[in-house]
Amino acid sequence: MKLTRRSKWLVGGAALIAAWIAFGPGDPDAVQPARGAASPAARAAHAPAGPQAAPPARALWSLAHRVAEQTSAASLFAAHSWYVAPPPPAPVINTTPVAPPKPTAPPLPYAFIGSYTPEGQPTVFFLANGDRVYDVHLGDTLDNTYSIDSFSNGQLVLTYKPLNIQQQLPAGIGQ
Q1: Which domain, by its residues, includes 166?
Q2: How do residues 98-122 score in pLDDT, each as one tens digit?
Q3: Number of domains in the chain
Q4: The pTM of the whole model exceeds 0.70
Q5: Residue 18 lies in a domain
Q6: What residues contact residue 151 under an 8 Å CB cut-off, 6+ apart?
Q7: Does a structural domain hold residue 71?
Q8: What is the pLDDT of residue 34?
């Protein structure tokens, strides 16, 4: 294989760069130990602390045999979940249908004013509702809502027609 001039320069430059990296000066901030006859105790006392001071084999051995706390080791691979428990069920409400209350008639809107009995004629009763005055006989109907049924024991008996409920209106007079 014949190399061109340019290829020779590139291979040579790569060889020089590799030699510089392998045999060149180290890190300018690194401190080199003195090449003297220092005792092993003095070397141990002045040895820098930390993982950079240990030889590579020793550093690898300490990394391989390190021990972690159980709480941190267990939390590394602990199961985590985003599941949120649903809220507790709502209290049970009795849904059985309750019978509606029996309907009642509204209070009587009429007030008794008086009565008049002409000779040989039926009695006429005068009732008031607000500023309106009614003259009624037995059997009449008021506002298509109340009918006059009877008069006994000093009371007029009216029937609330929508519910067919009888109500009594004190008349204040005796028969």
Answers
A1: 111-170
A2: 888 898 999 999 999 999 888 989 8
A3: 1
A4: no
A5: no
A6: 123, 125, 138, 157, 171, 175
A7: no
A8: 65
